[in-house]
Write a structure and sequence with these properties.
seven-stranded mixed sheet, globular, 8% strand, 19 helices, Rossmann fold
Length: 479
């Protein structure tokens, strides 16, 4: 008699910890892994003494599950998912549910949703954030796909998810690839957040001459206020670690940041949808630039670094940097939600931005105090076009703006690169300005390509063209 509540395929770090998490919450978990050796190590190690059930192959796994069968795939994104689905399909029947919990591209999830629906299989692309610890103790879970699967999945997914104020960090996102899209944007914000924090660290360490211990204490203090977040918390922990040779471990780590590509996907999607994610883009580019270590070392010998030394008040400089980091983080989140709104319109998704904010409050990498404020902003104004237009965030950014400018001015004087913070400030200055120099760009385009332009004294959509090589007056017949 089938007794399994859910089958889990793929016993990597995330898969193992999710299996243990589900077992802790009373669900009967049947597991399978392509490598029997890895499955044996798991069963004889972390899973020893649990009720987790092994399955040697896919037919055995599916036969052990109650109907409708529920399967969670925790395998590498890409072709591996499609190959596994092809092997699974003959074992399934209409009404069964397949959940892809990996970091799949949203377009792949959209395609799989339609392909499996043709066979009566309910597919869910589910973003899961929180890393190893989150998977074990409570991640942020972002399911999307076939909404008919949600009543079956909801008790399980909300049980294992993180809880904040008793509310599970797991809500239904939307159809098709919406779940993985929201996870992708989460990761784009994550890239931005990490880059902003690293820029603050760099300015303190190199520009202000602070020690890792002093910077650690600064981050600990910041984590007790408006900047409270998981990334600020772990940054303080990182800076407190000493290497075996007695120096701070951070000073012995190579300054070349790697990536798995989800931040790049966010930037590509923003370009395709016309969303100006300038701060997030700069965070992605900063990682690329960091990997050119040898080139950067050669450039440092070719150009002399700034000889300006900091001579001001350290306390004031750190306070200004706090405000710069806070305001820039708000911009990063505002850009992320801006992209979600563009995607919802383009792909005809109905997204609850409040629920997304609440889902990110716990378990995930970007969890932070002001996600409560983001949730409140969208609860009060569900059609809010941009977080920067919400009264609370208007006050917060306005209050931080003077320090933001002072910190960037100091960074420029000291020659410390702050590409993400600077992009955030430029975005803010552009977004709040009613008139930008794009009129000159339109004039140039019309001059060399006769692309036309709109006029401020005529209705929008009405196109005009001037004969620039003569008088600059509108060409004959335009008016």
């Amino acid at each position: 008699m089938p007794s399994g509540d859910i089958g889990l395929i793929g016993l990597g770090v995330m898969g193992q910890n999710l299996a243990l998490n589900m077992n802790d919450h009373g669900f009967a978990v049947v597991v399978h892994n392509r490598s029997r050796e890895r499955m044996d190590r798991f069963l004889q190690g972390p899973a020893q003494g649990t009720e987790i059930i092994p399955a040697d192959d896919l037919p055995t796994l599916c036969a052990a599950l109650r109907r409708p069968r529920k399967l969670l795939l925790m395998v590498r994104a890409g072709d591996a998912v499609d190959q596994l689905l092809a092997r699974l399909l003959p074992q399934l029947e209409p009404g069964d549910i397949v959940v892809d919990g990996g970091n799949s591209h949203f377009a792949d999830s959209e395609r799989r949703y339609h392909e499996l629906a043709a066979h009566g299989i309910r597919f869910v692309g589910c973003g899961i954030s929180g890393g190893e610890e989150g998977a074990r103790r409570g991640p942020s879970v972002m399911p999307g796909g076939d909404v008919l699967a949600w009543p079956e999945l909801r008790p399980l997914l909300q049980s294992i998810a993180a809880k904040v104020d008793g509310v599970p960090c797991c809500q239904w996102v939307g159809p098709g690839g919406a779940g993985h899209y929201v996870k992708m944007v989460h990761n784009g914000i994550e890239y931005a957040d990490m880059q902003l924090i690293s820029e603050a660290y760099h300015l303190m360490r190199v520009g202000l001459g602070m020690t890792p211990e002093q910077i650690k204490d600064t981050f600990l203090q910041w984590n007790r206020g408006a900047l409270e977040s998981y990334l600020i918390e772990i940054t303080a922990h990182v800076l407190g670690q000493m290497d075996s040779n007695g120096v701070p471990l951070i000073d012995n780590i190579l300054d070349a940041a790697k990536q798995k590509g989800t931040g790049k996907w966010t930037s590509i999607s923003a370009l395709e949808l016309g969303a100006p994610l300038s701060l997030i883009d700069e965070a992605v580019f900063a990682r690329y630039l960091s990997t050119r270590k040898e080139e950067r070392q050669h450039a440092q010998t070719a150009y002399s670094l700034s000889s300006v030394a900091f001579s001001g008040d350290l306390h004031s400089a750190v306070a200004h940097l706090h405000d710069a980091l806070y305001a820039s983080k708000i911009i990063a989140y505002a850009q992320g939600f801006m992209l979600l709104r563009e995607a919802a319109q383009a792909y005809r998704w109905t997204l609850s931005y409040r629920d997304i904010a609440l889902t990110w409050r716990g378990g995930c990498i970007i969890r932070s105090r002001f996600l409560n404020n983001i949730g409140e902003a969208f609860a009060n104004h569900p059609q809010l076009r941009n977080l920067l237009l919400d009264d609370y965030f208007v006050r917060q950014v306005s209050g931080a703006e003077p320090g933001w400018r002072q910190a960037l001015r100091l960074a420029i004087e000291l020659g410390i690169p702050v590409p993400a913070m600077a992009a955030g400030l430029s975005f803010f200055d552009s977004y709040r300005r009613g008139r930008l120099p794009a009129n000159l760009i339109q004039a140039q385009r019309d001059y060399f390509g006769a692309h036309g332009y709109e006029r401020i004294d005529r209705p929008r959509g009405e196109v005009h063209h001037s004969d620039w090589s003569r008088s600059g007056e509108p060409a004959s017949g335009e008016e």
